[in-house]
Design goal:
With 256 residues, the chain is α/β, with parallel strands linked by helices. The protein has a single domain (2-255), classed as Metallo-beta-lactamase, Chain A (4-Layer Sandwich), CATH 3.60.15. 18% of the residues lie in helices and 29% in strands. The chain has seven helices and 14 strands. The protein has helices at 56-61, 78-81, 88-94, 103-112, 114-117, 206-216, 233-237, and strands at residues 2-8, 38-43, 46-50, 70-72, 97-101, 129-133, 140-142, 145-154, 157-164, 167-170, 189-193, 220-224, 244-246, 252-255. A seven-stranded mixed beta sheet has the order 6-5-4-3-2-1-14. The chain has a seven-stranded mixed beta sheet with strand order 7-8-9-10-11-12-13. Helix 1 (56-61) links the parallel strand 3 (46-50) and strand 4.
Length: 256
């Protein structure tokens, strides 16, 4: 059994947006307050995070996680990577943290976080990582699980999703190549990004996400990477198909 905890379900600015007077940003409902998108996945004694955005420290303080076995990165954008320095408490307790990503993303992170990735003239107190490059057509083993990478497009930027058993996480996607559909059959739980109601050039909107769900037919789908322009959590939830739900921060699920 896999446990999934939503650390953040918001888009790049989070909700509320700084200085915004939009009604969703002013909502008192905790489910309308969204940190940047990330999930914590657990099975047995394994703990991994998919993406490590600028809210990482705050997110991890809301969990009981004291050991981090790895970070899987979907892509290099700041809302998915800017919290990397905050792995330091885990590094101090357990040593270098394994990070899994495409070679392109690892190069980008190495350029931006040279003091973490470099082994030369290491600054005292800087964390370290163990790099694991992954390729889209090559499943890999992590702990006792087979991880199946899924490649989608974020406009023209390739982004990586991950299937673990009958759970799959796909965020920041706009299109999904035909070649990847076979990897997404017979899912128990799909986490899928859906930015807003109106179309967007880089992201699935709500209608497109629901169309993809109808094609893939997972048992349950939880939507994430949600902007304030999606609307109020409670109002949108009432209009969704019976097997589709809006995720929210701190939500915990299980998948077989």
């Amino acid at each position: 059994m896999i446990k999934v905890q939503f650390l953040g379900t918001g888009t790049s600015q989070g909700i509320p947006i700084i200085g915004s007077t939009h009604p969703v940003c002013l909502s008192d409902n905790p489910k309308d307050k969204r940190l940047r998108v990330s999930v914590l996945i657990e099975w047995e004694n394994t703990h991994l995070v998919i993406d490590c955005g600028p809210d990482f420290r705050q997110q991890m303080l809301r969990t009981d996680c004291t050991h981090l076995d790895a970070i899987f990165f979907t892509h290099e954008h700041a809302d998915h990577t800017a919290g990397l320095d905050d792995i330091r408490p885990f590094f101090f307790r357990q040593g270098p943290i394994p990070v899994y990503a495409s070679p392109r993303v690892l190069t980008n992170l190495s350029n931006r976080f040279g003091y973490i990735f470099s082994s030369e003239n290491k600054y005292p107190g800087a964390p370290s990582v163990l790099q694991h490059p992954i390729e889209v057509n090559t499943p890999f083993t992590f702990k006792d699980k087979t991880i199946i990478p899924i490649q989608a497009l974020h406009n023209q930027l390739p982004v990586m999703g991950y299937r673990i058993d009958d759970f799959c996480y796909l965020t920041d996607i706009k299109t999904l190549p035909e070649s990847e559909l076979a990897k997404l059959q017979h899912l128990d739980l799909l986490v899928l990004s859906a930015l807003r109601i109106e179309p967007h050039p880089n992201h699935l909107n709500l209608e497109e996400a629901i169309e993809l769900v109808a094609l893939l037919k997972p048992k349950r789908t939880y939507l994430t990477h949600i902007s304030h322009l999606m609307g109020f959590h409670e109002e949108v939830s009432k209009k969704l198909p019976s097997s589709v739900f809006l995720a929210y921060d701190t939500l915990k699920l299980t998948s077989n």
